[in-house]
Amino acid sequence: MTDQTSDKPQRFNTKLWSRVYRMIFLGYITVLAWELFLGKYRSHGGSRRYNLAPLKTIVGYIKNYESFGVSILLINLVGNIVAFMPMGFLLPLVFKRTKRLTLIIPIALLTSITAEVCQYIFNVGGLDIDDVLLNTIGGVLGYLIYKFVASGTEYKK
Asked: Largest CB tally within 10 Å, which of 22, 44, 128, 148?
């Protein structure tokens, strides 16, 4: 058996997984867009809100968690992190050029800024710099999980 024929199943497997990752990424982006603009926790109408002071919202939620309740704290703080974790995990699987943290950070940051500005423009949520910070942290954590998983699945020749 030549090397070429033994590589065929591996190339097929790689292409198949590549397509699977792309479909999962597309599904993730669809769900993320839905949640960011149409989801259950979106405010529609009313006055536009914004916060450009870093950590103001985060500190406010933590200081006043008893008046907000744990569920609001989790939705607003943990939810913003968790929402962008799949991005950090899936980007390197879908786009081979994004296998470095130095690319994941600006992609997560710019995606989050774009989402926040669009929420403000379309008046479906407030523009909050803390959301950008938490979303970017989520992208980084997702990437770190990707690196951990990838290091365990790679084999040495």
From this structure: 128
Mean per-residue pLDDT over the chain, rounded: 90
84: closest CA among 149, 150, 152, 145? 145
50 DSSP 8-state letter: E
Query: Cα separations (Å) of 54 from 86, 102, 121, 129?
Result: 24, 22, 20, 6
Sign of the C-alpha dihedral computed for residues 50, 54, 58 and 61 taken in this order: negative
Q: Which H or E run contains 54?
A: none
- The pair of structure tokens assigned to 76 is 């607003």
Is residue 157 over pLDDT 50?
no
Q: How many CA atoms lie within 13 A of 43 on its CB side?
A: 11
Minimum mean pLDDT range among 20-29, 73-82, 112-121: 73-82
**pLDDT tens digits, one per residue of 102-121:** 999 999 999 999 999 999 99
**Rounded to an integer, what distance in angstroms lies between the CA atom of residue 81 and that of residue 133?**
9
Distances (CA, A) of 18 to 13, 23, 32, 91: 8, 9, 21, 11
